[in-house]
Hints:
This protein has 105 residues and is α+β, with helices and mostly antiparallel strands. The protein has helices spanning 57-71, 88-103; strands at residues 2-4, 11-18, 21-29, 36-40, 47-50, 75-82. Helix 1 runs parallel beside helix 2.
Amino acid sequence: xxxxxxxxxxxxxxxxxxxxxxxxxxxxxxxxxxxxxxxxxxxxxxxxxxxxxxxxxxxxxxxxxxxxxxxxxxxxxxxxxxxxxxxxxxxxxxxxxxxxxxxxx
Length: 105
């Protein structure tokens, strides 16, 4: 597991290998949840399932895309991050921390 940030802005990413394919589980904030599911296959468009009004797919898509292209396998990214009444500045901190996770894939 890799992490980025501290306190309520801490995010984490777990990787599981399923044969040659990879599953990424993203969480963090005050209440991790499943907000979206994204599937990446090398050379194909990303498949995104957005649950409810969650915007977690905006972070999960780069994870699935980067991993599928780097490893040339199918990658699924699932999860979500929640902070109650997050301000725009707080969302920017979370997004920055998530981008750091993507660089570690």
